[in-house]
Design goal:
There is one protein chain. By secondary structure, this protein is of the alpha/beta class. About 25% of the residues lie in helices and about 10% in strands. An 8-stranded parallel sheet has the order 9-8-7-3-2-1-11-10. α6 packs parallel to α8 and α9 crosses α10. The chain is globular and about 80 Å long. It starts with about 25 loop residues before the first strand and ends with a strand. The structure holds alpha-D-glucopyranose. The site of alpha-D-glucopyranose has 9 residues, from loops.
Length: about 550
């Protein structure tokens, strides 16, 4: 990395006190159980986050998004929630949570938390009540219970398969079956039930009252269902269009729920924000989740499944900016999160069947052969892609550890794995998601690389030492140093939401300008790209310029 010009970094755009702060925010995702462990039990906690607030402030992000920290048996990494209005005792208390929010706010960092409305855990008091109350009860109506098929009802109501693999129905002691789109421990709620609706409004108010600034809505497109008889078979289900009428996915009436939520969000000053995790079929359908009458913003996951390829990036960027215009929202950029193989690793692997998309999972499945992973190529490309994203209009969601250029961990034995997608043999991600959830390395030495005093709940490989925060903080050419500089500069770059493409004479080089004079050039190819006299305007690059020439697999930021 090279920083050619020194430059003042005064904020032109106040990202913190403005009701529209989220439109251009850099949001850092914390997976709390793997971030920092202050209590020394091997599991990250709220006090751990509090102890690293200076690190977050120095990084230069605008907000954090916390994956679930609620009481949970961890059947799905905390996405099986026992109580939506509490903190898991292993992670801390509500007082600890308040102290963390205050400390983040003092540093100008907003707080987004995860809401999991599609399902509770099977330990949630509602589900326990439903089991005890029996068929036909009001308690069962909060969930989706059905009689089985076959002469004695011993067969499930349908042959549907859960997202994590295996059957989507589970039988309870009195013979009825309940529906679970994910793990058995995650019974789906019945969103036709008014009590369910009311209770989530209470939860949103509970956290908003505590000063939470926004919400990330888990599988926002799955809440409402049409389970009227006769139920289709899984083969029939797969053929049904996802146009608002599909029995399980992206039904039109789900937006009635979010319109209600919006009235809660807007009753606060500034209004609370929300971002939908919605895997839907078209940009138009995604735009509905991002509407100002609904959640306001929706994740754009296109780059999670894209190759490191100029044409593909350009198409995705253009489509998503157009889609943002459609909804009136701003778009979101994501290269990594807690559900996918880290992007440094995806970009360091040889393409599979000509495509880079699924190779991360296949590589982990094969035991992570070292010979296949080009760590330096992965890092080069990851830095180039991230700097491109940070220069685009819209908000960028960063996943903890990517600022270190951290790679996926493949060295996890079946006994050490935790992800239900691994145990249930999910088709979409058969080897599970543990490899991107390994606790962060804070120092090259010491117990669990500085994560905590007594080990880490997922094994950290020896090579984590090379990516430790203390090592990278001391190295001006590290990925961490690059992120810190870029995130600071970004505040003067993100003063408007427009972009203008500048054509280059190369298919593998993308270039765009922002009206405020900033430009971003990304060289996706391996041949160097000559910036000519513009080299003088370069402010930051992911690889050092050589005589005004941008090396392959690199991004440069220029300021006129
Ligand atoms: C979302 C989460 C994922 C979780 C699933 C079920 O996709 O990102 O981690 O397993 O929902 O809650």
């Amino acid at each position: 990395m090279s920083e050619v010009h020194s430059l003042d970094t005064h904020d032109d755009l106040d990202t913190h006190d403005d009701a529209a702060w989220w439109r251009q925010a850099a949001v850092y995702q914390i997976y709390p159980r793997s971030f920092a462990d202050a209590t020394g039990d091997g599991i990250g906690d709220v006090a751990g986050i509090l102890s690293r607030v200076d690190y977050l402030a120095e990084l230069g992000i605008d907000a954090v998004w916390l994956s679930p920290f609620y009481p949970s048996a961890l059947a799905d990494g905390g996405y099986d929630v026992d109580d939506y209005r509490d903190v898991d005792p292993r992670l801390g208390t509500l007082d600890d949570f308040d102290a963390m929010v205050d400390a983040l706010h003092e540093r100008g960092i907003k707080v987004i938390i995860d809401i999991v409305p599609n399902h509770t855990s099977n330990r949630h008091e509602w589900f326990q009540e439903a089991l005890a109350a029996g068929r036909g009860s009001a308690a069962r109506d909060r969930y989706i219970f059905r009689e089985g098929t076959g002469p004695d009802g011993s067969q499930p109501p349908t042959d549907w398969v859960s997202v994590f693999g295996g059957p989507a129905w589970e039988r309870v002691d009195d013979g009825q079956w309940y529906f679970h789109n994910f793990a058995t421990e995650q019974p789906d709620l019945n969103w036709d039930n008014p009590e369910v609706r009311e209770d989530f409004l209470t939860t949103l108010r509970f956290w908003s009252d505590r000063g939470v600034d926004g919400f990330r809505i888990d599988v926002a497109h799955m809440l409402t269902k049409d389970l009227s008889e006769p139920l289709p078979s899984s083969a029939e289900l797969a053929l049904l269009p996802q146009d608002g009428t599909h029995p399980l996915i992206d039904r039109d009436e789900v937006h009635e729920i979010y319109a209600e939520w919006r009235t809660v969000f807007d009753s606060y000053d500034p209004p609370r924000t929300a971002v939908a995790e919605a895997w839907v079929s078209t940009p138009e359908r995604r735009a509905k989740y991002a509407s100002a009458e609904g959640l306001g913003q929706a994740f754009n996951f296109d780059l999670l499944v894209a190759d490191f390829d100029a044409a593909e990036f350009r198409r995705i960027i253009a489509d998503n900016l157009a889609q943002a215009t459609l909804s009136g929202s701003s778009t979101t950029w994501v290269l990594s999160n807690h559900d996918v193989t880290r992007h440094a690793t995806r970009y360091g692997l040889p393409a599979l069947d000509g495509r880079a998309v699924k190779q991360g999972v296949e590589w982990v499945r094969a035991g992570g052969p070292a010979a296949d992973l080009d760590r330096e190529q992965g890092r080069r490309r990851a830095e180039a892609a991230t700097m491109l994203l940070l220069g685009l209009p819209g908000s960028t969601y960063l996943y903890q550890g990517e600022e270190l250029g951290l790679h996926e961990v493949a060295e996890i034995t079946p006994e050490q794995r935790q992800d239900p997608a691994f145990f249930r043999g999910a088709e979409f991600d058969g080897f599970g998601r543990d490899g991107c959830r390994v606790p962060l390395p804070w120092s090259a030495d010491g117990s669990s690389f500085g994560f905590g005093a007594d080990g880490a709940h997922l094994p950290q490989p020896a090579w984590f030492a090379d990516y430790a925060v203390d090592v990278e903080a001391a190295d001006p050419a590290s990925t961490l140093s690059l992120y810190r500089k870029a995130l600071r500069l970004r505040r003067s770059l993100q003063t408007d939401e427009r972009l203008e493409w500048r054509e280059t004479d190369r298919d593998d080089v993308l270039r765009f300008a922002r009206p405020n004079g900033w430009q971003v050039v990304t060289n996706f190819g391996t041949e160097p790209f000559d910036l000519g006299s513009d080299a003088d305007a370069v402010v930051l690059t992911t690889q050092p310029l050589r005589d005004g020439v941008l090396p392959g697999e690199a991004t440069a930021w220029l300021r006129a």
